[in-house]
Amino acid sequence: MAGLLEFDGLSRRFGTVTALDDLSFSVPSGQVVGFLGPNGAGKTTTMRAVFGLTDLDAGSVRWNGEPVGATQRRRFGYMPEERGLYPNMLVAEEVEYLARLHGMDTGSAATATKQWLERLDVADRATSKVETLSHGNQQRVQLAAALVHDPEVLVLDEPLAGLDPTGIDAIGEVLVEQARAGRCVLFSSHQLDLVEDLCESVAIIDRGRLVARGAVDELATSGARRLDVRVEGDRQGVWAQGIPGVAVSEVDGGEVRLVLDESTDSDVVLEAARAAGRVTEFVFGRRRLSEVFREAVGRLRRSRSSSPPSRWCCSSASACAAEVGGDRHGSVDSQADFAAEGSWETPDLWLGARSGSGCGAACFE
Amino acid sequence: MAGREIRERLRGRLFRVVTLILFAVVAAAVVIPTIHTGTTTHQNVGVVAGPPALDAELQKLATAVGLRVELVREPDLSAARASLSTGDLDMVVDGGGSILVQNPISDTDTSTGARYVRAVATALGAQQAFAQAGLTPEQAAAVAEVKPWPVESVHPGKTARTTEEATALLGVILTFIVLTQYLTWTLMGVMEEKASRVVEVLLATVRPGQLLAGKVAGIGAVALVQAVALVAFALVLAKVVGSTLVHGAAPIVVAATLVWLVLGYAFYSWVYAAAGSMAERQDQVQSLALPLSAPLIFGYIVSLIGVSSGSASLLVKVLAYLPPTAPFAMPTLVGFGEATWWQFLLSVVVSMVCTVLVARMAARVYRTAVLRTGRRVRLRELVPTLAK
């Protein structure tokens, strides 16, 4: 059954620090959704809000239109950022115990525990104490504990942190498999290349506000054009500096990534490159997720330091509305309202720019 | 949740070690006093010469002091002496007019064996005197039935410790040990759940109140079972070794002690659990546990002094109605026979009402503090929570 996890206008302040600032977005089932943001952006606070682990000053979390309460949470699976298991308990007993807390009977809990420990390749440690396991294996056990009761919604805070490539593959596979089976999967991570591989879509937040939401493919292909150019004899891209409407975004091993303004003709760039030396590469490229992330976060911060915003754009509001589905900031009307309050939007993402106190304390992230 | 607590506690090595130590302490408390006062229950008594009526007289005296004796007829004094020195006999009564024992008996020896020897010596000596005075056996028997005049004092003070007081003393000590142990476990258990962050996983599924109640009930159940086992062990042991701890109204004192052990744990466990939720390291726990244990120690010391002094002071009588100190003071009053049933019940009701209030506040503190990590949660940070 299709489901929808909605975050509606979440606000939370810790003293003078704003952790969540009217945050709204939604996560449909059947997708792996990456939840991104710099440290202190409010990701953990948002995820904890799903489980009632933090009091909200305003807003609500809903599952299929119903406010999330104790009944719904029994069908949710959670993996907190700081792993939480009884260190002295035996692995299988611990997973079984958590399954029982979610309402499973003894027999089903034991069967499901066995299956998940096997699936996550830790069955041979079933009778070991949790504390004797390596970090990676403890992480697998933690994931087993989040999955054992066959939850409809999976909320995982940094599930891939500190894992080796095998562990990442194993856990990544499970997340994708869960989404394919119709579960709602939201996970946070700082490993953007992995998120790009695993997720259909992402939500990016900064300072407690949503700064981007959309399908990974759309975010990568929309927006300003990217050009990857390689010119012999100029590995730093000095040749590109000074071309009007062109900015050097990245230099990587002699390959220069340029961001072109809408009005800039790529032929002008090619001529400039040729003038500098032999051109060995000239390709229109996709935006990497890291670029989307930096832009989203960077623009918000710039906009906060220099108000009022300098540029307005509403070209793809409808696409954004479709993607965020049901999110009130996704509607054209509310975006217009938001814009009137002092925000601005790019073709592929919209950016909140209310003045507010900065955060950055690690207490809620 | 309570089930997990019970399983994990029973499995722990610490639990087994502490239980063994507690049983050893109780055994010592029951047995050592009986060794001091002497608890011989059975003696072999050799009889040389003398009429058959002597045997009946010896049996009668034995019953009077609470001793079972087996009478062995010896052919002559030298054979009897030999059996006495080898230990086959404990005492020899020579019909010719003397008594032999293995070792000298001091005047201060109050053991059953010693009392029996004195009783036999006095009774047989008296009978001999009556016979020499020319009294018939009936007259002699009538004279021997001495009924001392009653002695009454104008002040009600006590001169010797009663059985009930001794039981109360043991109960106060047991309550203190068991409460201290299990309350520390509650505190540490909550702290460990917070430190290991497992609490975040648990609270994503269950309500804080449920989690807290599960822990308190689980550890409480283990504590109660252990206390009941200890008391049962003490009672059986006391019966076997003939201790006076189980005589008179002592069973009422035992029951009162158990009731207050449960009430004491119920009252304090919430407070300790709430304190545990404010800490996530051992060193933080110590500064929290110290002020909490102060009323516990105060009640214990005052009651202990009360029991030892042989009378219930006004302070003990007051403390018996305050929930933090009542677990010690009320059983003490019961031991002195100075608590009526309604006073006992009143104190129980006061304690239960306070426990409900304390539990509510503790649940609020727990809910707020247990998810605040990084440093110890200060009490003043919780004031808004408590004021809600």
Count of beta strands of chain B: 4
Query: Can you count the helices of chain B?
Result: 15
* Anisotropy-based shape of chain B: elongated
Major beta sheet, strand line-up of chain A: 6-7-8-3-9-10
Number of domains of chain A: 3
> What value does the average pLDDT of chain B take?
84
Q: What's the gyration radius of chain B in Å?
A: 29 Å
Quick structural gist:
Chain A is an alpha/beta fold. Chain A has twelve helices and 16 strands.
Overall description:
The complex is a heterodimer of chains A (365) and B (388). Chain A has 12 helices and 16 strands. By secondary structure, chain A is an alpha/beta fold. Chain A has 3 domains: 4-219, 3-Layer(aba) Sandwich (Rossmann fold), CATH 3.40.50; 224-285, Alpha-Beta Plaits, CATH 3.30.70; 289-364, no CATH class. The longest helix of chain A is centred in the last third of the chain and has 17 residues, at 289-305. The model of chain A is unreliable at 306-365 (pLDDT under 50). Helices cover 70% and strands 6% of the residues of chain B. Chain B is built from 15 helices and 4 strands. Chain B has helices spanning 2-11, 13-37, 52-65, 77-86, 112-132, 137-144, 163-195, 198-203, 208-241, 250-276, 282-309, 314-319, 326-336, 341-369, 379-387, and strands spanning 42-48, 68-74, 91-94, 98-101. In chain B, strand 1, helix 3 (52-65) and strand 2 (68-74) form a beta-alpha-beta unit. The model of chain B has no long low-confidence stretch (mean pLDDT 84).
Keywords:
A: alpha/beta, Rossmann fold, 3 domains, six-stranded mixed beta sheet, four-stranded antiparallel beta sheet, 16 strands, 26% strand, elongated, B: 388 residues, mainly alpha, D-Maltodextrin-Binding Protein, domain 2, four-stranded mixed beta sheet, 15 helices
Q: Which helices and strands appear, and what pairs or packs with what?
A:
The complex is a heterodimer of chains A (365) and B (388).
Chain A: E1 4-14, E2 17-28, E3 31-36, H1 43-50, E4 58-63, E5 66-67, H2 70-73, E6 76-79, H3 91-101, H4 106-119, H5 135-147, E7 153-157, H6 165-180, E8 184-188, H7 192-198, E9 201-206, E10 209-215, H8 216-221, E11 225-231, E12 246-252, E13 255-260, H9 266-276, E14 279-285, H10 289-305, H11 317-324, H12 332-340, E15 344-345, E16 350-351
Parallel strand pairs in A: 3-8, 3-9, 6-7, 7-8
Antiparallel strand pairs in A: 1-2, 1-4, 4-5, 9-10, 11-13, 11-14, 12-13, 15-16
Helix pairs in contact in A: 3-4, 3-5
Chain B: H1 2-11, H2 13-37, E1 42-48, H3 52-65, E2 68-74, H4 77-86, E3 91-94, E4 98-101, H5 112-132, H6 137-144, H7 163-195, H8 198-203, H9 208-241, H10 250-276, H11 282-309, H12 314-319, H13 326-336, H14 341-369, H15 379-387
Parallel strand pairs in B: 1-2, 1-3
Antiparallel strand pairs in B: 3-4
Helix pairs in contact in B: 1-9, 2-9, 3-5, 5-6, 7-9, 7-10, 7-11, 7-13, 9-10, 10-11, 10-13, 10-14, 11-13
